[in-house]
Amino acid sequence: MRERLSELRKLSCLELTLSYRFPTIEFLVAILVFSSGLGVLSIGMTSIGMNLNPDPYYNATQTTEHYTEHMVQKKTLAYVQALVTCTNVLFFLIPLFVAFTVARPFEDGTLKTILSYPVNRSTLMSVRTLLLLSLTSIPTIALSAVWTSTLIPSDLNIGYAMIASIATLVSILMMYAISQFAAIISKKSSATVIVGMIFWIMVTTLIYGPFLPITLVATLNPVSAVFNFIVGGEYAPTISDLVVGISSALVIALCLIATSLKLFFKAEV
Amino acid sequence: MRVLRFGTLLMVIGLSIVAIAAFPPRTGMGGGGPLEPGGYQGGLYMFTSNIHVTIDVRDNLTISLYLLDWDDTLTLLQTGSLDHTSPHIAYHNITSFSGIIEVPAPGVYSLVADSTHNETVFLDIDMYTILPQTHILAPGLVFICLGASIIILRIMYTKYTAGQ
């Protein structure tokens, strides 16, 4: 067990040195700080009208609840909007990262060199997957939470925030799975980027409007579906649509990752 | 090398915050409408810097204008009165207003107006955030200075140890 952990640690350090050289992580964090901030401000700077008439029939409890609920919804929406903005940017960046970390080692021979050492292929892929997912999802959720809690003082709807955070993780996992699958099938960074870009364009354009069934939209871009669910409206999904969409996206992503792993075991380097 | 990367990371975070302070997604806000006798009219806004406010009261009637923070806004909602609040800004008996209102810290504020007239007063409120958003810019600059200090100190330390 200790040897396994030590191997994982060494591989993580190697991967950080090889694939996440200066200024890759810095660039990623900068983009996420900017995107999450824009997301929070775009919702936070909307105003809520106030008209109080404190006559003898003035119901203080009801009025206070009305405005506090507005503020709770505003804070929750700001948090979810920050997640949506970051995820849309990550949908563009993840294929580039996967092309650089998974497909490029096939092309330049780095993978051959690494595998000439006593390194398990499954450990190598697990390290790459976990590193990329942690480097993208943890800053996204943390920065969105920091911006929201700093700028908007009211409470947060914890239930919606949890669903949105899970949907963000699933969205990122889905994009990673598709890019990784393309990278291992093609073994070319250009093909990985092209497949990723096509999916990015698809999820950022087709999800708006009545082009696709709501459940499919929730599967392709779960975090945007959560935002639409909170806002409500004609094309808003129901909670069952969300559950089906998020579960389907998770199953598809896990199947793609499992298939990619199988293909990676058989891949000639 | 790790210290240098940490310093650079702080600088880059600072630059991103400064970029947001300079280019917010929206700057304009507004409100207004009929102000009933004995009532309050206004809105809840999130301010990240000082704001320029223009208020027009129709028919030359007068109003009083208050800027309340979130806690005072809750007191106003709970009591229906400004008695137990301490407004950051209060302008009394004005027929119109155009100027900059200083916001002490980032957060949610309410800008409300009341009137002493026995008739309904109609008012228009128009406001925009003054750029750069100072309350976002300041932490950004702190991050930049902190990152730059770490980088400079590390370089000086490396040169000093190399000299020895």
Report on this structure:
The complex is a heterodimer of chains A (269) and B (164). Chain A has one domain. Helix content of chain A is 80%, strand content 2%. Chain A contains ten helices and one strand. Chain A starts with a helix and ends with a helix. Chain B is 37% helix and 36% strand. The two termini of chain B are 20 Å apart. Strand 1 of chain A pairs antiparallel with strand 2 of chain B.
Short description:
By secondary structure, chain A is an all-alpha fold. Chain A is built from ten helices and one strand.
Keywords:
heterodimer, A: 269 residues, mainly alpha, 10 helices, elongated, B: 164 residues, alpha+beta, Jelly Rolls, 2 domains, four-stranded antiparallel beta sheet, 36% strand
Radius of gyration of chain B: 23 Å
What kind of sheet is the major sheet of chain B? 4 strands, antiparallel
Most extensive interface between two protein chains, with residue counts: A-B, 39 and 46 residues
Side by side, the strands of the main sheet of chain B go: 1-8-3-6
Name of the CATH first level of the largest domain in chain B: Mainly Beta
Indicate the CATH architecture of the largest domain in chain B.
Sandwich
Instruction: Give the uncertain stretches of chain B in residue-range form.
Output: none
Overall number of strands of chain B? 8
Shape of chain A: elongated
Helical stretch count of chain B?
3
The residue fraction in helices of chain B comes out at 25-40%
Do you know the CATH topology of the largest domain in chain B?
Jelly Rolls
Strand-residue proportion of chain B: 35-45%
Shape of chain B: elongated
- Mean model confidence by pLDDT of chain A: 89
Low-confidence stretches of chain A: none
Approximately how much beta-strand content do the residues of chain A carry? under 5%
Sketch the topology of chain A as an H/E string, one letter per element: HHEHHHHHHHH
Tally of distinct domains of chain A? 1
- Structural class by SSE content of chain A: mainly alpha
